[in-house]
Amino acid sequence: MEAAQRAFGNPALEFALALARARKRPVAVVFALDPSGSTGTLRQHAFLLAGLAHVARGLAERGVRFSLRLGSPPEIVLGLAQGAAAVVTDRGYLRHQRAWRAEVARRAPCAVFQVETEAVVPVELAYPKEAVNAAALRRRIQPLLPRFLRPLPEQDPPVPSANLPLPGPEEPVSLEVLGKMELDRSVPPLDLPAGTEAARRRLAQFLEGKLERYHLDRNDPTRDGTSGLSPYLHFGQISPVEVARRVAEAGGPGAAAFLEELVVRRELAFNFVFYNPQYDAFAGLPRWAQETLRRHAQDPRSALYTLEELEEGRTHDPLWNAAQAELRTAGKIHGYLRMYWGKQFLLWTSDPEDAFRWALYLNNKYALDGNDPASYAGVGWCFGLHDRPFPERPLWGKVRPMTGAGLRGKCDPRVYIARWAQGGSR
Questions:
Q1: Burial level of 304, CB count in 10 A (0-12/13-18/19+)?
Q2: What is the distance between the alpha carbons of residues 359 and 255, in angstroms, rounded to a whole number?
Q3: What spatial distance separates the first Cα and last Cα of the chain, rounded to whole Å?
Q4: Among 140, 179, 216, 315, which lies 20 to 30 A Cα-Cα from 121?
């Protein structure tokens, strides 16, 4: 278990149980945690471990052994594979996730199965190459949805394994593990409940109180009109298929708008990181965007800021400062405002590569759902990814501009600024 951190609604787990039933073997679930903390901060790992506590309890209820290990994920899995009939893994699309699984598949002494768990439609089936925009993927993915929006039957283990002995040291499924990790501790944890039950409660609240107006309220950062499911999807604490099915069953224009975000846009990000090896670099942007931004790198700018000034929200723009305060304090920025936040880096740095790198760094450091395919695609969109060239203008070149004046047509920014002034909270 790595990407799909859940004991229920987990296709990899159900496949493993079916395989075990056919072979009359017990199943053990192992989560290997990289102690270097290279894929997150204290904030992100605290939420991860809180979620794993729910995984351990859920698996215990199902009679399945759970083991948390600290070390190199492929080495831990390969060590345990020596006594296994088969290894089943969930699926991740980022470079390090794919590398871990490839190493296990290459070196394991037994069969290795990878099961799609985090996309509604598997990325290769949805599209055979990098999609240029959402429209290209939408045309391919929508006809496939009925095949995949189906309930997942859950089964009992053929052999109860709760007390199955496993070789090697284990860790307690608690926040104590954080003390053994090399983490960036400057980003504090958030007071947000983790786990599948919390995710399902959040989904129920969204379906009952927000979905009907989602298409009207989602782009207004002064309204609480979004689902709040992004962290749970990022850590795999809830199945995207479960969410999509529940929303599709509700129906209506709000449901259609949400499914566009959950399936088309989210899986466009999967497509991007899967097919573009430079997804985390300026060089991974469309060539036209790279060229136009470099041509306008020397345009006169009203202000230039250092990374430290940006990180601390010390710019002349109170709206941008408020967005950065929300990111640092709440671990997120409202989706529509995050586009404004990301695009301003182009106005305040003289090197577009620095602008891209700094935006991605701050997003991945503070966002609870950072280091996600949607992080790379979302920041990339601010710089021209999955978009078309616009009429050329100073600073922006041909990249789509976004200004505070444009935002005022969507909402009253003063309300948002007042909420997050001085790093305040909701």
A1: exposed
A2: 31
A3: 34
A4: 216
